[in-house]
Amino acid sequence: MAANYNKTAWFYDSLARLVFGSALKNSQKHLLPLVPKNARILIVGGGTGQTLEDLAALQYEGLHITFIEISANMTALARKRNVGNNEVVFIVEAIEQVQLKSEFDVVITGFLFDNYADADLPVTFNHINSVLKPGGLWLNTDFQLTGKWWQPLLLKSMYTFFRMFSPIPVSNLPEVDKVFVLKRYKAIASATFYGDFILTRAYKKSH
């Protein structure tokens, strides 16, 4: 189960801008133009809901979005976002506890899996995978280590800081791409930000 950032909701976005500038926001919106019109979208770990506004800026209406976030305080902020005329259902719960129908055209996960150990990742991944239609699109954005000396230091600092507010059971990034490959997803687009420390990638689920 992912960490709960309830206690940091009030300053999370400000801190992200202080450390990363616009990189976190830009990385998560970069591949949103790939989302088809009138799509049924599942957002997991949606945080304060910036992605809702970014989607509305591209498609003001016609989207059917299920927004799942474990933090009630984060969700409260997300509810204030301008979602246009898109339909949004908010669920305050860990994704592992939510039962959904297999009806989504798109899954969006932003900085979700960095809270999971490699041993725990498959359970959550498989749960999400089960509700994405064959041929569906999965947009995943998260941190990665590419060999630059400062990346592990920054990552450790981030884990240490947020552990003061919430139990975070990991200190290292899981190998998420290997899970996508194992489940026969095909990477169709990607981009990096902030000195390659942030990777956003679009995967297509096999039929």
Quick summary of this structure?
Helices cover 31% and strands 27% of the residues. The protein has 207 residues and is α/β, with parallel strands linked by helices.
Which keywords apply here?
globular; 7-stranded mixed sheet; 207 residues; Rossmann fold; 7 helices
Explain this structure:
With 207 residues, the protein is α/β, with parallel strands linked by helices. It has a single domain (6-204), classed as Vaccinia Virus protein VP39 (Rossmann fold). Helices cover 31% and strands 27% of the residues. The chain is built from seven helices and seven strands. The chain has helices spanning 9-20, 23-29, 50-58, 72-78, 121-129, 150-163, 176-182, and strands at 40-44, 61-69, 85-92, 104-110, 132-143, 186-193, 198-204. The chain has a seven-stranded mixed beta sheet. The two termini are 28 Å apart.
Topology:
Blueprint (H helix, E strand, L loop, with lengths): L8 H12 L2 H7 L10 E5 L5 H9 L2 E9 L2 H7 L6 E8 L11 E7 L10 H9 L2 E12 L6 H14 L12 H7 L3 E8 L4 E7 L3
Parallel strand pairs: 1-2, 1-4, 2-3, 4-5
Antiparallel strand pairs: 5-7, 6-7
Q: Find the CATH topology.
A: Rossmann fold
How many domains, in number, for the residues?
A: 1
- Proportion of residues in extended strands: 25-35%
State mean pLDDT (0 to 100 scale): 90
Number of helices: 7
Distance between the termini: 28 Å
Given as residue ranges, the uncertain stretches (5+ residues, pLDDT < 50) are none
Biggest β-sheet description: 7 strands, mixed
Structural class: alpha/beta
* CATH H-level homologous superfamily name: Vaccinia Virus protein VP39
What kind of oligomer do you see? single chain
Strand order of the largest sheet: 3-2-1-4-5-7-6
Write down the CATH class: Alpha Beta
CATH architectural arrangement: 3-Layer(aba) Sandwich
Order of H and E elements: HHEHEHEEHEHHEE
Q: How big is the Rg? A: 16 Å
**Count of beta strands:** 7
Which overall shape is indicated by the principal axes computed on the Cα atoms?
globular
Domain Methyltransferase: 41-136
Protein name: Methyltransferase domain-containing protein
Pfam family, one: Methyltransf_25
